[in-house]
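Appendix B, example 12.
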Amino acid sequence: MLKYEIFINPKVLKNLDNDIWEDEPVPAVLKIGKEKHTVHLAYRGNVIRKKKKKSYDIIFQKPYLVNGAHEIHLNAEYSDISLCRNKLSLDFFDSLGVISPHSKHVLLYINGYCKGIYLEIESFDQYMLKKRKLPPGPIIYATNYHANFSLLTPKSKLKSSLDQGYTIKNGSEKDLARLEEFIAKINTLNNAEFEEEIPKYLDIDQYVNWLTGVVCTQNFDGFIHNYALYHNSESNLYEISPWDYDGTWGRDLHGRKLSHDFVPITGYNTLTNRLLNIPQFREKYLNKLLSTLENLLTVNTMEPIISTLFNQLNPYIGLDPYLTINEQTLEKEKTYIIRFIQKRNSYLKEKMMSLI
């Protein structure tokens, strides 16, 4: 496992600890192997900031790009007993043909003290698009639960603005205006108009791939949060991608167990509901889901992947000062995830009949 070392002025670090909600990045140095990089560092996330083991944003300054990236995320994965759910999910989406951030586990040190195992995740930004040789385009993050493609909030109150829940990562205010137009059409077109117009705004096949991933991994937040919208400048269509998927594979974001049937096969955001109400779009989803249940979301496919990840972590768990798990704990969690896959697969196959 690669070793990452952060060096930061102790006074600056103390100030960060005294104000966990400070978003302004502070100067630091990141050493990876023999290479040293001048960076800016900030805490990231919401719930995780209250935990002892925190997550970080790293923004490269000198050099400005490292391996094609200007920014990376170091996720603590504190509430995930397996430390693997995020990576397992993002790689699963990649297998489905969804643009997904790449990730890898690293061992993090700060000022010489081991902070444990972290998951380095690509930032979904314009630099990642360039690195993947994808067309440039605006990127908008769904940063809270109002990003449900609806005119109403999750509490059924009328939104003051249709861009509620969204934050521009790369782009301008006109890109939010385009998104508002898209959301308005989702909610106001009749079925015939919707079937004709929405493919002019949304890459339907790509959305179906993403929907399959959310449903299979059972990310309760994934339908109205934890995603990025990328407006492909070549196709002129929106594409959707996942991020922060630690609350998956049978547990929620706090690490609590979730039944294999907690999230319905139809999901629960407005866009998904409208798409599945159109026979041709519903058929696309069923075909993709069946193929996934037969080939990807199976024990035969997933068990070797999970075992490899767990085996890579085993030698290092004793170095993480925040972990109370051991090799036996990890083995039990691996069994739990495998059983979830079995049950989720059977549940989704059974529920497919209701959509035919």
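Residues 135-297+342-355 form one domain. The chain has two domains: 2-122, 135-297+342-355.
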